[in-house]
Amino acid sequence: MIQMRKIAKGMAIVTMAAAAAAPVSLAIATPAFAQSSCSAGTWGGVWGWGDCRGSGQWQLKVSCTWGGDATSAVLSGPGHVDVKCPWGSARTASIIYR
Hints:
Elements (H helix, E strand, L loop, with lengths): L1 E7 L2 E6 L7 E5 L9 E6 L3 E6 L4 E8 L4 E3 L3 E2 L2 E6 L5 E8 L1
Antiparallel strand pairs: 1-2, 2-3, 4-5, 5-9, 6-7, 6-8, 6-10
């Protein structure tokens, strides 16, 4: 049996119990928006891109060669953003949930 109890916006406690075992509590602190559909990647050598659907706040972080990085402004809700490396090439792009 699995029971979920909401304790705060975007957080829940999940309790799992087997038939012959004592209940086990597992706290999960995942932002509600993390369950939305988001993706990120790089293109054109120096650009990173991010797309999200759903509600919540997020931003794109691009890791660049030569120790550089670039981060977008915080976006709310669904959208798309492109971020250019200040120097070097784009290596990775990732979504940061706020």
